[in-house]
Specification:
The chain has 10 helices and 8 strands. The chain is α/β, with parallel strands linked by helices. The chain has a single domain, classed as Rossmann fold, CATH 3.40.50. It has an 8-stranded mixed sheet with strand order 1-2-4-3-5-6-7-8, sandwiched between helices. Strand 7, helix 8 and strand 8 form a beta-alpha-beta unit.
């Protein structure tokens, strides 16, 4: 597995799979990149360079744990671009990884070819996702057998009276079966410290980020699932407004991992954008 040195000397690992034009991929979590798989077969169109974020997967633990903060991770991405020898790169982020990708685009707009934000988190640009928005989206699943238990847990989390993230996991998938249960179990972040410090004070400066993105000329794709409780379509649409050249796609029947729910549709949309 190839690796490179981050600016602070931390050794970071990445995987390279597929053929075609390169796309650097940033996982959410923070977690390693294995849960991304081959992004539903996007490897038939692009060479995916999948980074294990510091302290996850085969990447080393940093000496300074404050470097887990989202804005510091941008430096790891720039070091990867330099290591790969790419004057400009297409960048794909998923979930929390879209915060890194967004801040990278704000800080290095001339280094971005195209920017794909999948299941986008809106924290970097200060878009608030309300409890009512999540409730409204969750109720679209009211006919699912797991809905009563999951919705009760969701209500408790929204009201600040609960924290059972496992109980609401079905809301993150377009279907809840043996395959998605296995994916959920395998993809959970293992480094609790990295998760806790990702959004530490100072990690996000939405006003500054928005001002920088307003001048970013790179084409942007924001793709979210119809049922994505983590990245509701309404919030993703507001996020899209931060860019001069952005396209929002809502994938029907999909949750937070659209390449699992309908791989062909996901790949067709994403590959066409990256082409």
């Amino acid at each position: 597995m190839p690796s490179y040195s981050a600016p602070d000397g931390t050794l970071l690992a990445y995987r390279v799979i597929g053929d075609g034009a390169p796309v650097v991929c940033l996982p959410g979590g923070p977690a390693d990149s294995l849960y991304l798989g081959d992004l539903g077969g996007l490897t038939r169109h692009n060479r995916l360079i999948l980074l294990d974020l510091r302290g996850t997967g085969r990447s080393a633990l940093p000496k300074d744990v404050s470097s887990y903060r989202c804005d510091h991770l941008v430096d790891d991405v720039e070091a990867l671009r330099e290591h790969l020898g790419l004057p400009r790169m297409s960048l794909l982020g998923h979930s929390a990884g879209t915060n890194i990708a967004t801040q990278y685009a704000a800080r290095h707009p001339k280094r971005i070819g195209k920017l794909a934000l999948i299941g986008p988190s809106t924290r970097a640009v200060g878009v608030t996702i309300t409890g009512d928005t999540r409730r409204e989206l969750a109720r679209l699943r009211k006919d699912e057998s797991w809905f009563p238990t999951a919705f009760t847990a969701l209500e408790a989390i929204i009201e600040g009276a609960g924290s059972d993230g496992e109980a609401i996991a079905p809301f993150l998938y377009g279907r809840w079966d043996s395959e998605t249960r296995k994916h959920h179990a395998a993809g959970r972040p293992r480094n609790e410290e990295a998760v806790a410090l990702f959004a530490a004070e100072g990690a996000f400066r939405p006003e500054i980020t928005r001002a920088a993105l307003a001048t970013c000329e790179a084409p942007v794709l924001l793709l979210t699932g119809e049922f994505d409780l983590n990245s509701p379509p309404r919030s993703a649409a507001e996020f899209a407004g931060a860019f001069p050249d952005a396209r929002l796609v809502v994938q029907p029947g999909a949750g937070h991992y659209p390449w699992l729910d309908d791989a062909d549709r996901f790949v067709a949309t994403t590959a066409a954008f990256l082409a």
